[in-house]
Amino acid sequence: MKNKKSLAQKINVIRASVMGSNDGILSVAGIVIGVAGATTNTFSIFISGIAGMIAGTVSMAMGEYVSVNTESDSQKRAVMNEKYALKNNYDEEFDFVKNKYMQSGISEALSNKATKEMMNKDALVTTVREKYGFVVNNFTSPYDAAIASMISFPIGSILPLLAISLFPSGINIIATFIAVIIALAITGYIAAILSHANKIKSIFRNVTSGMLTMIVTYLIGLLVGMFS
């Protein structure tokens, strides 16, 4: 029977999707606006955007795969170390968990009772959770994260690519600029919800980075266009 994904695993996959979409929007927007600053040739702008989409999709997928694998390897190593510690220094591990509960304001008697009950139920899960902050065997699949990024990056890329290609040449840059800002505000908001961060700060940071990226690439494109 196939194991169901935990909420944490699902959230990590959603996070990879949101970040992949966000990077797709920002990366391709920077490319097409930069090229648009250098030339008004719609075909050249479109091809550069497609190339950026393909390269970014592969890069994001591989990056997520490597990143999640690295994190998973670190967690598995922590579990192995904790197994060894429980086997050779059980009392020390027991005291660590109990002292952590006491530091949070729980009385010694209650901390001792809670620690004893949880350690008797599953000492490894208890100590790993309290020492390292994750749940044993609750690892995010690197394949799921890679696939999520591989799908979401080109989806995010479509917005700036369509905006720069479909709008008339006189307004296509400003139209792309506005569309990207709106999209980045949305992905910033979703990212803040998933990470329990300040929504206003997250949106501001996302939108600001996007604006700077587009302005810089456009100015560079203008300079290239002037001397080409």
TrEMBL record:
InterPro entries, per the entry: Ccc1_fam (IPR008217)
Localisation per UniProt entry: Endomembrane system
Topology versus the membrane: Multi-pass membrane protein
Lipid biosynthesis among keywords: no
Annotated TM spans: 21-39, 45-67, 145-167, 173-195, 207-227
GO molecular function list: manganese ion transmembrane transporter activity
GO biological process: intracellular manganese ion homeostasis
Pfam families found in the cross-reference section: VIT1
Keywords on record: Membrane, Transmembrane, Transmembrane helix
One cellular component (GO) term of this entry: endomembrane system
PANTHER family: FE(2+)/MN(2+) TRANSPORTER PCL1
Protein name: VIT family protein
Natural source organism: Apilactobacillus micheneri
